[in-house]
Each structure stands twice: as structure tokens, then as C-alpha cells.
Amino acid sequence: MMDVCLLGTGGMLPMPKRWLTSLMLRCEGSNILIDCGEGTQIAMKEAGLSPRPIDIMCFTHYHADHISGLPGMLLGMGNSDRTEPVIMIGPKGLFNVVKSLRCIAPELPFELRFIELDQNTEQYKIGPYIINCFKVNHNILCYGYSVTVPRKGRFDPEAAKEKGISVKYWNRLQHGETVKAENGEVYTPDMVMGPERKGLKVTYTTDTRPCENIVKAAEGADIFICEGMYGEPGMEEKARSYKHMTMREAAELAAKAKPTELWFTHYSPSMINPKQYIGDMKKIFPECRCGKDGMMRELDYTDE
Amino acid sequence: MMDVCLLGTGGMLPMPKRWLTSLMLRCEGSNILIDCGEGTQIAMKEAGLSPRPIDIMCFTHYHADHISGLPGMLLGMGNSDRTEPVIMIGPKGLFNVVKSLRCIAPELPFELRFIELDQNTEQYKIGPYIINCFKVNHNILCYGYSVTVPRKGRFDPEAAKEKGISVKYWNRLQHGETVKAENGEVYTPDMVMGPERKGLKVTYTTDTRPCENIVKAAEGADIFICEGMYGEPGMEEKARSYKHMTMREAAELAAKAKPTELWFTHYSPSMINPKQYIGDMKKIFPECRCGKDGMMRELDYTDE
């Protein structure tokens, strides 16, 4: 199970009634926060979420609307008595940006660990998550993230019986343990487990032109959360020159990648009501929705 | 005339429905912003105010809740096409703090000029304002601010007639001009203007223990805006050890300084409803009010 909460949906500037774009993922008591603009800690409180279990923070890039809320967030995590280290992932330069911003949050009761990205794609396995980072195309170095919670294969009792493995070892093998049996034999989980099944996957990208990396990343996603900065026709040139994406371009990416669902986010302050364009977008990719602040979804495996 | 808008009233952490403490003053199209925590730019929009005319920014100190909104505010001012310089006033170290925070707002279309405070009191005359900065008592170097809009004396036509000054020069003299008359005489404003009258004055202080500097600063203020972090009895020791002030201590300061009015602000996140303590506070200083987000007052001269 993975909980998905889109904390905010704004781009560029925080507005009354629209927080800046940020995503919280929760699985097994370990949370990932992606982006943290001004006000994200308030959006989180409004959504009823605590900053304490944030074990991983990912940043797409270092424009203020994606990271200006960091000092306050770190202090809030400190005030919630967190002492466990926090892993921070972001484009090259992360350590220096965080160091600078921490001039107003110098003392924290937990350690920060840094992963700086500079490759086309990078993968990290942390806690229950596999995090795939992919380079996108903005006016500064910028990454998108796919977060997957993998799912083990099905236990195969027939295979276990065939190999003469006593029932008393089955549970430990199902939980990934290698077992040395009383008869001296060594049993490994792969002897009794079927092939890995489809896990849960969320892909998040903002502040980019459409590009092939995004299509690859969003393939098989349960939710693909993508910038749709502008909805009204005629904004394509502006989107191109500022290296942003229109709702139409996001829908076209989704049509190629075929995620289960597309959520738009990172709306321009000039776009008051993104929903007015959703009809046209559904013609391109039917399973699309306008993200809104605090939108939640509990993702669960489709077959049990 | 001076407009006073208390943008937020929170201390420590921004909360849903309570912005961090910040004050906007407006006079003759030139605005002063005092403190700028996370979310202040949104509070300003909610109050219907623009960031563009902010000519002066004052900071009490560099704890995050008083300055974390600075990068976003500066970018907002840039987006509003401001090109005129902005004067920044704050305790020693201001330049370095602002430089660090600007790692995410490096390019601005206007210049920043810095005034760093380190004396017990300092005075600056900028635009329509006289700004008196006074050192207070927090766990880091911290200042309060009194902002005064001075008022010229009354024009004395009898004095002008007595001195034989032709009526055609009166208007220029009233506007502070020194006039060389056709007859060769030189007339100065002080020849025809009475003594300076009481101007408009607002005093603002947060994050401090009570101290004599505050009493002196708030004397004669039309509005004295003061931290009242805690209202419930029993919090005195906590206030003392963290170098904050209770509502009672603020009211006692007001009883000594005798401003026209006291507004409480900088409430602890633990204090949900400060109004429940106002009855007790009025026994100490009757003209007190609980500040609330967006509270506005138009100050005007009492006699015309």
C-alpha cells in the first residue's frame, strides 16, 4: 500500500487558496516528500500529515517555488522530535543550496545525508521504495522522480512440496529469509517464490518541456503527476520559451506512456480554473484529472 | 496618514489560518514591511496589498519565522516589475543572511541596500518615515522598530504678516522651501511655521523579554504592537527561559509606556484563542486588542 497526497498544485508563486506543488508519499511509516516550496509545511498540516516521518526529501530543482519552504520544514521536523537521519536527493549542488538556506535553521536534532544527481537516470533503493530519478528539460538542471513500492512474487506451495521443503520453513522463506534446515539443506526464497509482481508506482515531474525520459518513466505508473502550467490555447510559445509544459503536452505524454491515471499540477497563477480545460484533455488521454490541493489516493495492489 | 496592516500574528511556526507575524505600513505610496516569515507574501495578497511599493524591509532578527519568506517576497517584488532599490534594515549580519537566502533568488531587477544595526538605538530618516530601531532582549541580537510619520507645525499667517512676507511666498514656505524674494530678502520656513505637531507613530516588537528600551520606544505611539506569546497563567517561566513575553508582560509594558492602543501578536501555536485572555489584560491596560491576521487601521492626525 502507498498513500499519495498532492499537497499543492501551484507554480511560480504561492497564492491564497493554492499551495505550491509538492507531493507526499507514505508507505510502511516511511514518507517521501517531493519538493518543498513556501508554505508546504502549512499545506501538510491542512492535509492532516506530520513532518516527523519524512525520511526522504527529493527536489526537482532549485527554483524558489520548489525549495523555499525547506528551512521551515526542517525546523518543523526538529520540533516534532525527529532524530533519525533524513536523506535528501536532488540535482548536483544540493548540499550547497541546503547549506545556504540553513543559515536560518542551523541546528537540527537529526543528520542530513545528501545524494546529488548528475546522470541521465539514477536509481536508489531506500526503505520500502525504489526511487528512479530521471533528467528532464528545464532552464536549469532538473529531475523527475518515479517512486515504486515493489511487490514480491506469489508463494508457490507446489514448488516447495516438490523440493521437499518442510512446511515449518515456508513462512521464513516467504519473508525473504534464507533457511538452513535441520537436514543440512539450504533453502533460498527464490526456490519457492514466483516472479515479482507489479508493484505500486507514482511518477512526478514538473518544470520541463516534454521529453522521452518522462514517457519512459511514466510507463506503468498508477498515477502520473505532471506539470500542466497552462490550459488556454495560445500559451504554447510561452511554455516553450520558459521551458514549461501545457496541459495538452502533459496529456500527450500520458497518451504515449499509458499510466493508469494522469493528474495535472503546477498551474500558472494566471490559470484560475484548470478544470475548464479538462474536457479537451480527456480527448487526448481519458484518465486525466485536475490535481487539487490535498488530493489523496490510497494505492493498493489490484489483485490479492 | 499612515495605513497599518498586521499581516500575520503567529510565532514559531506558520499554521493553517494563522500567518507568521509581520507588519506592513503605508504612507505616501512608500511601504515598510517589518519581518517576513514563510507565507508573508500570501498573507499580503490576502490583505489585498502589493509587494511592489515595499521600499524598506526591517527585520527584528534572523530566526526562520521572521525571515524565511524573504526569497519568495523578493521574487514577487521582481515579478511586479519593481526596479527601484530596496533598503533593508536589521541586526548586524543582515547582508550575509540575505546573501545566503538569495541562493534561490539570485537575480532581481532592483538593488538591495543594507543597514546593519549594532547600537542600543539608531535612527534613520527614509522617505516619509523616521525609523527608530531599539535593541531588545532575545536569545540572539534582536531589534524593535518605531516608525513615525512626522508632522510639520501649523502655518502662522500673523507671523508672516508681521515679518512683511508677501502672500505669494506663503505656499512655498509652507511646503518647506526657502524663498529668495524679489526685494532681496531670504525667507525660511521656520519664520512662518509653528512648532512641529504630534505625528503618527507605530511601535513593533516581538521575540523579547520586557525591557526599558521598549517602554521608551512605545511612548506616544498610536499603536504599540507587541508580542504576547502566551496568555494562560503558568507560562511565565517558559517565556522567561526562551526569552519571549506573555500577554500580561506586554500589557504591563503598555501601562508604563501609555500608547493610545496595544495590539497583541506573535502567539504561540499552542494558544488557539488569545481572545479568552483579553478581559484580564484590559484590567492592566484597557486599550488593548488581540491582533488578528489582516487587521488594518488607517491612522490620521487627530486635529485638523
Topology, pairings included?
The structure is a homodimer of 304-residue chains.
Chain A: E1 2-8, E2 22-27, E3 30-34, H1 40-46, E4 54-58, H2 64-67, H3 70-79, E5 86-91, H4 94-101, E6 112-117, E7 121-126, E8 129-135, E9 143-151, H5 157-162, H6 170-174, E10 179-180, E11 186-187, E12 197-205, H7 212-218, E13 223-227, H8 236-241, H9 247-257, E14 262-265, H10 278-284, E15 288-290, E16 295-299
Helix pairs in contact in A: 7-9, 9-10
The helix count of chain A comes to 10
Task: Summarize the helix and strand pattern of chain A as letters.
Answer: EEEHEHHEHEEEEHHEEEHEHHEHEE
Main β-sheet of chain A: number of strands, strand sense, barrel status? Answer: 7 strands, mixed
Q: CATH topology of the largest domain in chain A, which one?
A: Metallo-beta-lactamase, Chain A
Q: How would you characterize this protein structure?
A:
Two copies of one chain form a homodimer. Chain A has 304 residues and is of the alpha/beta class. Chain A has two domains: 2-152 and 199-299, Ribonuclease Z/Hydroxyacylglutathione hydrolase-like (Metallo-beta-lactamase, Chain A, 4-Layer Sandwich); 153-195, no CATH class. Chain A contains ten helices and 16 strands. Chain A has helices at residues 40-46, 64-67, 70-79, 94-101, 157-162, 170-174, 212-218, 236-241, 247-257, 278-284; strands at 2-8, 22-27, 30-34, 54-58, 86-91, 112-117, 121-126, 129-135, 143-151, 179-180, 186-187, 197-205, 223-227, 262-265, 288-290, 295-299. The longest helix of chain A is centred in the last third of the chain and has 11 residues, at 247-257. At the A-B interface, helix 1, helix 2, helix 3 and helix 4 of A face helix 1, helix 2, helix 3 and helix 4 of B.
